[in-house]
Structure to design on (383 residues):
């Protein structure tokens, strides 16, 4: 099977979709697929780290068809983020070019992975009522072109089926995976790593992982919970890991200073992925600002799941949790339960779920099986 990935950006760009493309393609290549890449990023200097040829696309169906022919693609896999293909988040041109590919290259099957869907009016300010409808129309048009539509969370699945009008038999949930390699430290290694970080073995450590804006959102969202833990003498340390550059934004520093015990906080900044994995493995609790109903589209949450952390999360207003995720509801969290058998069981269950459902090996295997089934179905129809 030959798969060409179309993505707005590719590594070395620092981008969740770029990381997803590389990690998924690497694993598909390892499972026998031939992979190639088409991207839209003028700043990309090299695709040398990718396991296949790379072309840059500046738009137009003829160029896209030419690259697919060069790459001898059986499948075009579109890494879809609406703002990645349109400054207004309404990818009309992408839909037009994909329709041409479908018409002129009928042997190439099309998979759409929706990393994002259209925005709601309240998310778009004064232009929301008009722009949201236009985004919905253009995103739906792209999605309906696919032989397969992949989504990471249940709300997107419902939107694709109910609002975009895609046949439910073509829509599949496929997790995004984590770009942080799991550390899996032994107890002795974990103890040694904690000492290297300046943490005592008995310290209860909470972590916030993600880009700087994510850290800011989490500190604001969990301020009351964090303060209660510190005042109770149970939460000894809160660590912020990750970021978008070497300079910590003043907003984050000011926010930490507003806490009554700023000495309890550490801002570690960006670190190599392997080091982040070790740091997460040394923590106990994670504070995730992503609402529970879309939690599985958060790479930061998945990294914490692989580390076996107890993840505190809030449900979105007016949305009742309808999943079986082994996480802790922040609304009712009592720090006196921090060392309870319930928390130990939840940490173990989340880690088990991660290694059974969220590995790149598992994700790639599932995706390839769906794609093989589509190819077989079309082959049978043609004969």
């Amino acid at each position: 099977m030959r798969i060409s990935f179309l993505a707005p950006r590719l590594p070395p760009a620092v981008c969740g979709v770029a990381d997803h493309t590389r990690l998924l393609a690497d694993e598909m290549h390892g499972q026998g697929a031939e992979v190639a890449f088409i991207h839209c990023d003028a700043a990309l200097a090299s695709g040398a780290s990718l396991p296949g040829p790379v072309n840059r696309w500046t738009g137009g169906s003829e160029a896209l068809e030419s690259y697919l022919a060069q790459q001898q693609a059986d499948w075009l896999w579109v890494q879809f983020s609406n703002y990645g293909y349109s400054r207004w988040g309404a990818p009309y041109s992408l839909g037009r070019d994909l329709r041409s590919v479908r018409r002129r290259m009928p042997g190439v099957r099309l998979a759409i992975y929706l990393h994002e869907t259209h925005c709601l009016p309240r998310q778009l300010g004064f232009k929301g009522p008009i722009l949201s409808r236009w985004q919905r129309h253009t995103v739906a048009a792209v999605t309906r072109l696919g032989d397969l539509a992949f989504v990471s969370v249940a709300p997107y699945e419902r939107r694709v089926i109910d609002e975009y009008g895609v046949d439910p038999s073509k829509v599949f949930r496929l997790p995004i995976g984590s770009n942080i390699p799991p550390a899996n430290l032994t107890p002795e290694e974990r103890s040694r790593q904690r000492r290297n970080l300046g943490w005592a073995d008995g310290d209860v450590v909470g972590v916030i992982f993600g880009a700087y804006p994510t850290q800011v959102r989490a500190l604001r969202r969990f301020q009351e919970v964090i303060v209660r833990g510190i005042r109770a003498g149970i939460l000894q340390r809160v660590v912020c890991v990750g970021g978008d550059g070497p300079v910590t934004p003043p907003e984050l520093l000011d926010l930490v200073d507003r806490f009554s015990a700023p000495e309890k906080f550490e801002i570690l900044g960006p670190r190599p992925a392997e080091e982040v994995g070790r740091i997460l493995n040394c923590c106990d609790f994670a504070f995730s600002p992503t609402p529970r109903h879309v939690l599985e589209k958060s790479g930061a949450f998945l990294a914490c799941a692989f580390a076996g952390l107890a993840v505190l999360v809030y449900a979105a207003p007016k949305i009742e949790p309808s999943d079986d995720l082994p996480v802790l509801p922040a609304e009712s969290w009592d720090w006196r339960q921090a060392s309870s058998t319930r928390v130990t069981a939840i940490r173990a269950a989340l880690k088990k779920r991660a290694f059974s459902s969220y590995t790149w090996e598992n994700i790639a295997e599932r995706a390839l099986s769906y794609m093989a089934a589509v190819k077989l179905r079309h082959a049978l129809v043609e004969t």
Observations:
- The mean pLDDT is 93.
- The longest helix spans residues 360-382.
- The two ends are 20 Å apart (CA to CA).
- The longest strand covers residues 2-7.
